[in-house]
Amino acid sequence: MNFLRRLRDIGLKETHGSKERKRIRILNILIFISIVHALFFLIFDGFTGNFLSQKTGTLGIQLLLYLTVLFLHYKYHIQAARVLYLTLILAVLFYHSNYAFKGYYGEYQYLVVPLGALFFFDKKYIHYLSLLTAIAAFYVPNLYYQNYPEQYFGYLNASFLFVSVFVSISFFKRENDKNEYLLEQQGIKSI
């Protein structure tokens, strides 16, 4: 158990506040889940003899980049690790939506990127930039690749969905931050 706890706490310093500690731990857990996911499919494809060079290559690159994110955490480059992780998620979703699994409406998963930005960053411009990037990633590739008929992607319903979920989660995040701050202040006063 101590080993797992140390893995979860890679990149933590004593000076980090509780909010930052949560963010670091969550990203470490997400990284390990992503590493296990990539390793599983590499091993599974090896056992089943289903080694496709493109799939193996992309899984190998993903694995290396996830390990790079973990290394950045280990070296206390926390912001760079977060940016790389969210960029990697965006790139993986782009690849899956437009090449590996096109036509399966995986584009809706782009919503994960702005929600991740809400959790990992405090700067509002990063939140809004990630939302706009997710919306653009949803619509623009269909103009070039035409994965779907225009009547499915020609409307702004997905933009409305992305913005609605983003605003809702943003509201609850602000409320949670306020409540955590108040609890922290009460804890300081009682000492």
Could you walk me through the main structural features you see in this protein, from its secondary elements to its overall organization?
The chain is mainly α and 191 residues long. It has helices at residues 2-8, 18-48, 53-74, 78-100, 112-120, 124-145, 150-153, 157-190. Helix 3 runs antiparallel to helix 4, helix 4 (78-100) runs antiparallel to helix 5 and helix 5 runs antiparallel to helix 6. The longest helix is centred in the C-terminal third of the chain and has 34 residues, at 157-190. It is flat. The mean pLDDT is 88.
Mean pLDDT: 88
Helix content: over 70%
Tally of DSSP helical segments: 8
Shape: flat
Q: Main β-sheet: number of strands, strand sense, barrel status?
A: none
Low-confidence stretches: none
Total strand segments: 0
Helices and strands, in order, run as HHHHHHHH
The amount of beta strand, in percent, is: under 5%
Counting helices, strands and paired strands, the structural category is mainly alpha
What is the rounded Rg? 19 Å
- Compute the separation of the termini in Å: 31 Å
Key terms:
mainly alpha, 191 residues
